[in-house]
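Render this sequence as a predicted structure.
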Amino acid sequence: MEFAFYFVLPFGTLIKTTPLKKTIVSLLIGSLVLAACSKEADLVQRPLIVEEACIPQFISPGGHSYDKDSVVSYECNSKFCGLMPISPKNYWIYLDSVYNDGVFVKTQYDTLRFTESYRSVTDGLTWWTCPISIGLPTRLYVNDSAIFKLEDRVFNSEMIDAKREYTLFEGDSLRYLTSFDDAAAAGRALKLSNAVSVPAGSYSDCMYFEKNARSYRLDQVYFKPGIGVLRYVQQKVPMGGRDLKLQQVSTLVKFYFK
């Protein structure tokens, strides 16, 4: 007479087996239980990685003025959401083509990192230093729709003024007043209908910003909201000359957002 044994597997299946198959089934069940315990232990011991949330920026400081003493250096490790995502962990790599009054000189790589930060005490905003020349202000604050700069006030070295540098806008184009550090300029902004292609990728819905001081300097910035500067072109009129000459072309090669 042959005896039959019945087993209920962990997933609810009832099986019938003979003594010859009993050992095989027991090993199978043991393996399933061991695997389940190992997975549970792995989930308990494995650290849970939580992505750091970015801090949205909505304040518009355009037109604000600060005493120089009220803009203080401090260490900021936060991640900010905005027209350009800024964090000490983010970086952008650019390939620069350098010219001397239109004559090509060399190529070099530059890395943009925002590691030096300031706080305007009266409103608690974080301002960042831009360490390389790619058309961005030297000290900037970025909200969800614009980039602002801090600029020393003319005839009053104790005051700093916040001014809007680049902004999103309604319509297809915009003209505005702006300036270089040492010259007044006319600003122009366009929404681009064609994609902008750089080594870092091809992007649609980009912006074009132009700053033009006639007979002196022309800067052009191709900008992708949510990423940053894709391409920067700088031209200047040589001393004693009359025509603009190419000085720098920077293109985005790679970027990393933590």
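Summary. The helical segments are 19-45. Confidence is low (pLDDT under 50) at residues 5-15, 32-45.
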